[in-house]
């Protein structure tokens, strides 16, 4: 079966083969409406596709499913929420280009060890129509982008929070481990009364007791969880300990493989976490860095491609005769960030530069000025000034703490954001 990353897992569900279609007495296709959502609809065919796919996937992965009525309610609610978000994305003019979509499919192809061109055949083996897969994946990317715009950009992380996170995590076993987690989330509204919150807490305690008595975590997640992966048994997949949401860090510290946490209270939810697996992770991080200076000339309506290259060839002759590279950079370079610094770009790690630029950097010897070469930005000559192996552990700690704090806030803020949109939407279910 095709391996799917988190981004396209849901897309694969909705891109499955069309389930049994309704026909009129004349043999014409009649699609029904499962729900009216604002100015749009969720079709019965969409509902049936997901129901069929989830049932087949549950059977293949031996995931117990909740009773049919609960499963159908979960699936319809998922489709309604997706439709609300897609309508919102359309209203703000959010579009996913073919280039962005193809990049995502290339990553999926790479994960599965196949070429981009072979994806239609690979998907067909799993009974998935490629055109439907592209449409569904485009929708999923649009939802992810919408969340980043409307929720992610509003989340702020202070330096004080980062420093506290680093201090809390020093010596913490969680930091030095990778976790495969599953999760049940029980939500209540931001305006919930004390009685309503107590009811959710009671349900969380009941679920925890059922798990202690041997109940299947995946079945209870599918039945009760409000998390995005509920119908996948609550699986969150593998994550580095530094990227675990801060809400779970202290709890995971004393947990081993197979352990289930007691209910964890958050601002608007209760969580139960299970450690499906864990493994030791490398504590320190080192990367190869390079110090480079360059001169860039960008062709324009006055300077054509050939002229730009010729100017660099003329400068290269003078530099190789002993004239100062930095002075020529100040005089000629069209790179506003480095021209006044004599063309110096500072220390940089892999993936910093455009691929065409990085290839030349990788192939260059220290202190040797290259021949002119082309990148998407124009024509360059460059000189590698030095190389080093750099211990970026502390920087990585800051980045991962920032990510961990954002992830923790993102979970709560996303649910509030989605609940507000759901409350404001007109939804008329027809099943």
Per the CATH scheme, the topology name of the largest domain is: Chitinase A, domain 3
By DSSP, the count of extended strands is 11
Query: In total, how many domains does the architecture comprise?
Result: 3
Identify the overall geometry.
globular
Would you state the CATH class of the largest domain? Alpha Beta
Major beta sheet, strand line-up: 4-3-6-5
Terminus-to-terminus distance? 31 Å
- The parts where pLDDT drops under 50 for at least 5 residues are 5-29
Helix content: 40-55%
Radius of gyration: 27 Å
The CATH architecture term of the largest domain is Roll
Biggest sheet statistics: 4 strands, antiparallel
Structural class: alpha+beta
Descriptive overview:
With 431 residues, this protein is an alpha+beta fold. The protein folds into three domains: 145 residues, Triger factor/SurA peptide-binding fold (Orthogonal Bundle); 158 residues, Chitinase A, domain 3, CATH 3.10.50.40; 104 residues, Roll (Chitinase A, domain 3). The protein is built from 14 helices and eleven strands. The protein has a four-stranded antiparallel beta sheet, sandwiched between helices. Strand 9 and strand 10 form a beta hairpin. Helix 7 packs across helix 14. The radius of gyration is 27 Å and the shape is globular. About 6% of the residues have low confidence.
